[in-house]
């Protein structure tokens, strides 16, 4: 295969996979709304292209199957047949097989006609006559063409984009150097030049970042089909609502979360949403609702998966944790409901064997959580017994460059990704108390555990006595991990800034307290705190403290 | 030349007597003179500003930026307990030098208090016999031989990659 | 001077192939369009130096035949070659009637495309 053939094959495959996803979504739509002419026209057009393109690629099995399916949808469009009854399953099967052929184009052995399917499709159109007349397709499908356009433009290798992004990171660091320098020497001309350089650097960064972004729809499009299959198997009725499918996110992040989302969706249908008869008894709509929504704000993407099923029972979770000897019953009593839900993220806490009794959705959540942690994201649960559960993922738009809050502890600079930060508060010493050896902050209706960073980071044994807190006014960064809030008392808040995180090199790479380091414009080193591990280390120390 | 691999073989030249020549960077740790093959030395610089990394052992001085590269800086004297007994106070880090070592997959620097030098030794000036190595204070596995300079001074030839990849250094920092 | 061509197809794959074939043959693909609307816009914008349009018939927004009709009404001299997987004679006849210069059925031979386009554009040697 020469280079051009390879390129054609790659383009064909990308387009065919996308068309297949779209067709899969569309036929589910059509099943609910068989008279939707726009959807029929779109399916027809996609199949038509696939037939022609596969023909050019000499992929006969795909071309033939697409052709027969095209005929079926042509007949549906002409009103000769309707998308109903036993035909539907056959068409679903045929589309599945089409996907199978597409995903295996490199395997000639797979590229075989499935005569049973082909004959079946012919029977669907009684008479089997080619009737592609009235080429006037309906309007309104332009959204799809826009989407095709978008992924068209990502024909540059990701490696190159990654390299480019790294270079941009270097550029940003140099820019920050220059800014600091300009401030020191107080030269007006240099200041002006730096400002314009700064703008250019910013827009280059933004352009490169957006070049890596794809819409979440490329993933979300797969869900209707998956949900249909799981629901059918579980004998549940599920109505899917998708919001914000045009939200953009880094392709790598999307790749990482795709399995997680399917896992959460499966959990929601299997363990969350009740069987129709049970829902009826509870005076709920027989049709369960599953809502998947995406949105972005300030460099973060939020994806939530919420159902209106059984909900999670904090009491049950607590007693399970006690039973598994993960916590003491005294500790269990002290946990709030939200903190109890956080226990689901602790490794080894699987609710699998208690699912029915518990009404859980907590299967394998520790794994889900650790995957999200690994890309610097976060997962929160909100749940109400009998009402439903909501999983909220906060994700970085990009993996390499992160918006962060910078602060000082002692002489050192530290950064905390904004993603992990709940809020920043300034409090007077009076509102800080020591309860059973633990520093706490009383706020409104909640009590937040505090970590005095200076001691935590620099003392051999972490044990904060009140004496160390000399200042009257203290800055506290409140972070959220495992559904629990922690307040980090820092020495000095600096500013918010986008940082380029470099991984730790040997021999420092065993230090899990930090996810990386970055160089500030001043030339100073700044350590990026890993909230997940920092709170874990803190918890371990806390529990060892409580022994005496 | 059976131990050629472990010795720092850098720049091979021929002396007048047609002998193989090796080039080293020499420095003082504690009271002894040491040498590492120049092949592994990326650069020698005045020690830059170091930022201590929390939760790392004392001999890891911290991280510093060397030409935009963020590298760990270690103190081998402290690590291997080579500090001269009579020295009461450490020389200020700012007046010291850092030898930056290119260790294949990463870069690392170590601090020396006196200005390092370069040294060329011919094969005949290097003694690799086991009993010589035995006498050195550092663990033998880190030492590839003993060199004798033209002035008659002794220098210990270090296998710096082995030193830096030693368990003692690579696994200490886990929290 | 090299001849200018606009390629209209809603499939990126198909556009890439056509663009490569035409450019290899020495033509200049000045623009690509993935919808009927973009096609009409492209023709409007570049009509003065546009020598030929290749046009797909099944497009997301409107029918290729309608697009063909609009182009020919506005610019009767515009060369349009239909490149479509639709092969029924009734459609081919309709297209030719509206004023297509040629009709190529997908999947096609590369040589065929070059030959047809070459005939229409007067077989000029296009290598600059």
From TrEMBL, chain A:
SUPFAM superfamilies: ATPase domain of HSP90 chaperone/DNA topoisomerase II/histidine kinase, CheW-like, Histidine-containing phosphotransfer domain, HPT domain, Homodimeric domain of signal transducing histidine kinase. GO terms for cellular component: cytoplasm. It holds the Pfam family Hpt. One of its GO terms (biological process) is chemotaxis. Gene3D superfamilies: Histidine kinase CheA-like, homodimeric domain, Histidine kinase-like ATPase, C-terminal domain, HPT domain, SH3 Domains. Residues 149-399 form the Histidine kinase domain. Residues 401-540 form the CheW-like domain. GO terms for molecular function: phosphorelay sensor kinase activity. The modification Phosphohistidine is found at residue 48. Residues 1-105 form the HPt domain. InterPro entries: Bact_Chemotaxis_CheA (IPR051315), CheA-like_dim (IPR004105), CheA-like_homodim_sf (IPR037006), CheW-like_dom_sf (IPR036061), CheW-lke_dom (IPR002545), HATPase_C_sf (IPR036890), HATPase_dom (IPR003594), His_kinase_dom (IPR005467). It is an enzyme of class 2 (transferase). Involved in the transmission of sensory signals from the chemoreceptors to the flagellar motors. CheA is autophosphorylated; it can transfer its phosphate group to either CheB or CheY. This is Chemotaxis protein CheA. It comes from Fulvivirga imtechensis AK7.
From TrEMBL, chain B:
One of its GO terms (biological process) is signal transduction. PANTHER family: CHEMOTAXIS SENSOR HISTIDINE KINASE-RELATED, PROTEIN PILI. It comes from Fulvivirga imtechensis AK7. Residues 21-169 form the CheW-like domain. GO terms for cellular component: cytosol. This is Positive regulator of CheA protein activity (CheW). Pfam families: CheW (PF01584).
Automatic annotation (TrEMBL), chain C:
Transmembrane segments: none annotated. PROSITE patterns: RESPONSE_REGULATORY (PS50110). The modification 4-aspartylphosphate is found at residue 56. InterPro entries: Bact_response_regulator (IPR050595), CheY-like_superfamily (IPR011006), Sig_transdc_resp-reg_receiver (IPR001789). Residues 4-121 form the Response regulatory domain. It comes from the Bacteria. The keyword Phosphoprotein applies. Coiled coil: none annotated. GO terms for biological process: phosphorelay signal transduction system. Keywords: Phosphoprotein, Receptor. This is Chemotaxis regulator-transmits chemoreceptor signals to flagelllar motor components CheY. It comes from Fulvivirga imtechensis AK7.
């Amino acid at each position: 295969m020469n280079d051009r053939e390879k390129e054609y094959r790659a383009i064909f495959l990308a387009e065919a996979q996308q068309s297949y996803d779209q067709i899969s979504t569309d036929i589910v739509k059509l099943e609910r709304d068989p008279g939707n002419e726009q959807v029929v026209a779109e399916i027809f057009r996609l199949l038509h292209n696939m037939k022609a393109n596969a023909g050019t690629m000499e992929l006969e099995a795909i071309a033939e199957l697409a052709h027969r399916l095209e005929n079926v949808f042509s007949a549906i469009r002409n009103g000769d047949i309707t998308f109903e009854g036993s035909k539907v399953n056959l068409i679903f099967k045929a589309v599945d097989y089409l996907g199978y052929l597409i995903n295996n184009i490199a395997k000639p052995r797979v590229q075989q006609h499935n005569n049973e399917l082909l004959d079946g499709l012919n029977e669907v159109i009684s008479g089997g006559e080619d009737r592609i007349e009235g080429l006037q397709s309906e309007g309104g499908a332009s959204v799809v063409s826009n989407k095709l356009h978008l992924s068209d433009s990502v024909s540059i290798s990701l490696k190159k984009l990654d390299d480019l992004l790294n270079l941009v990171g270097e550029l940003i660091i140099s820019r920050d150097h220059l800014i600091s320098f300009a401030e020191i020497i107080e030269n007006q001309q240099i200041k002006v030049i730096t400002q314009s350089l700064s703008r250019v650097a910013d827009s280059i960064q933004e352009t490169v970042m957006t070049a890596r972004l794809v819409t979440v729809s490329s993933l979300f499009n797969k869900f209707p089909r998956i949900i249909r299959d799981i629901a059918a198997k579980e004998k549940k009725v599920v109505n899917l609502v998708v919001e914000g499918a045009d939200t953009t996110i880094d392709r790598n992040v999307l790749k990482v979360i795709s399995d997680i989302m399917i896992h959460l969706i499966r959990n929601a249908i299997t363990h969350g949403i009740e069987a129709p008869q049970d829902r009826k008894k509870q005076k709920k709509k027989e049709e369960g609702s599953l809502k998947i929504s995406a949105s972005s704000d300030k460099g973060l993407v939020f994806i939530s998966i919420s159902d209106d099923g059984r909900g999670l029972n904090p009491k049950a979770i607590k007693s399970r944790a006690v039973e598994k000897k993960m916590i003491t019953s005294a500790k269990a009593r002290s946990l709030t409901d939200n903190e109890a839900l956080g226990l689901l993220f602790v490794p080894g806490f699987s609710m699998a064997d208690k699912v029915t009794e518990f009404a859980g959705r907590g299967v394998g959540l520790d794994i889900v959580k650790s995957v999200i942690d690994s890309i610097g994201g976060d997962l929160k649960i909100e749940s109400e017994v009998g009402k439903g559960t909501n999983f909220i993922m906060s994700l970085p738009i990009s993996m390499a460059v992160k918006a962060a809050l910078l602060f000082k502890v002692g002489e050192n600079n530290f950064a905390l990704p904004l993603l992990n930060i709940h809020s920043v508060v300034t409090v007077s010493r009076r509102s800080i108390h020591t309860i059973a050896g633990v520093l706490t902050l009383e706020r409104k209706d909640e009590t937040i555990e505090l970590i005095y960073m200076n001691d935590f980071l620099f003392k051999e044994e972490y044990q904060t006595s009140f004496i160390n807190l000399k200042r009257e006014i203290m800055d506290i960064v409140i972070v959220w991990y495992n559904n629990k809030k922690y307040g980090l008392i820092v020495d000095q808040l600096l500013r918010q800034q986008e940082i380029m995180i470099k991984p730790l090199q040997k021999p420092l790479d065993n230090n899990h307290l930090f996810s990386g380091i970055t160089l500030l414009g001043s030339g100073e080193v700044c350590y990026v705190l890993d909230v997940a591990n920092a709170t874990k280390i803190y918890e371990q120390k806390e529990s060892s403290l409580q022994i005496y | 030349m059976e131990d050629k691999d472990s010795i720092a073989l850098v720049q091979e030249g021929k002396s007048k007597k047609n002998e193989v020549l090796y080039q080293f960077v020499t420095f003082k740790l504690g009271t002894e003179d040491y040498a590492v093959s120049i092949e592994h030395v990326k650069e020698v610089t005045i020690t830059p500003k170091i930022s201590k990394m929390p939760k790392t052992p004392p001999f890891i001085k911290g991280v510093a930026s060397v030409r935009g590269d963020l590298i760990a800086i270690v103190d081998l004297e402290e690590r291997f307990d080579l500090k001269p007994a009579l020295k009461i106070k450490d020389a200020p880090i700012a007046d010291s030098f850092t030898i930056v070592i290119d260790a294949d997959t990463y870069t690392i620097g170590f601090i020396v208090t006196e200005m390092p030098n370069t040294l060329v030794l011919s094969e005949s000036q290097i003694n690799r016999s086991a009993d010589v190595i035995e006498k050195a204070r550092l663990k033998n596995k880190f030492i590839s031989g003993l060199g004798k300079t033209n002035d008659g001074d002794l220098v210990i030839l270090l296998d710096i990659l082995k030193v830096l990849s030693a368990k003692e250094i690579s696994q200490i920092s886990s929290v | 001077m090299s001849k200018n061509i606009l390629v209209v197809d809603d499939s990126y794959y198909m556009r890439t192939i056509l663009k490569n074939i035409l450019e290899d043959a020495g033509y200049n693909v000045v623009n690509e369009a993935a919808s009927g609307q973009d096609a009409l816009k492209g023709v409007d914008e570049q009509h003065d130096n546009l020598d030929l349009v290749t046009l797909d018939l099944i497009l997301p927004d409107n029918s290729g035949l309608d697009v063909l009709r609009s182009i020919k009404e506005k610019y009767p001299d515009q060369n349009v070659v239909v490149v479509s997987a639709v092969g029924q004679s009734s459609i081919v006849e309709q297209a030719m009637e509206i004023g297509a210069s040629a009709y190529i059925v997908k999947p096609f031979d590369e040589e065929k495309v070059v030959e047809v386009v070459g005939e229409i554009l007067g077989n000029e040697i296009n290598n600059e």
